[in-house]
Automatic annotation (TrEMBL):
Species whose genome carries this gene: Sorangium cellulosum
Keywords from the UniProt entry: Membrane, Transmembrane, Transmembrane helix
Statement: the UniProt record of this protein carries the keyword Transmembrane: yes
Highest taxon of source: Bacteria
Parts of the chain that traverse the membrane: 75-97
UniProt name for this protein: Uncharacterized protein
């Protein structure tokens, strides 16, 4: 059971970390696009260009770019926090969860075939440790 929790935590944490990195890269790209759009608006209409109707469409697009940048930044942060929690939980489970007593047949491994014979039937019992 402990190994399943540890492996699951590592897998989930790794996926969350990868998602956080991808979202951080996307957020940085969106931030650059928003800054370029802002510089273009200021160059063409001055620092108060968004107060007039002539730049409404461009300013609305700029607002959307800032919202998208903020959303992806927040999702990246959530990915990193989730990764930290999952990886930390996996590490704690590995360190603090007792491994338990080993099974008596754990060292043998492989497959066992044992005949089962009664007064009315005969058969085989197949088992193993994997």
């Amino acid at each position: 059971m402990r190994n399943g929790v540890v492996i699951g935590g590592l897998a989930f944490g790794g996926a969350a970390l990868a998602a956080g990195v991808v979202l951080a890269v996307v957020s940085n790209g969106k931030s650059g696009e928003a800054e370029d759009a802002l510089q273009s608006i200021v160059k063409d209409g001055g620092s108060n260009a968004c107060n007039g109707p002539a730049f409404k469409a461009r300013c609305d697009a700029l607002d959307d770019a800032y919202i998208a940048e903020g959303t992806t930044r927040n999702l990246a942060i959530a990915g990193f926090v989730t990764a930290g929690a999952a990886l930390g939980g996996a590490a704690l489970a590995y360190v603090l969860w007792p491994a338990g007593s080993p099974r008596a047949d754990a060292g043998r491994g492989g497959v066992r075939v044992v005949p089962a014979v009664t007064a009315r039937s005969a058969g085989l019992t197949v088992g193993g440790a994997f």
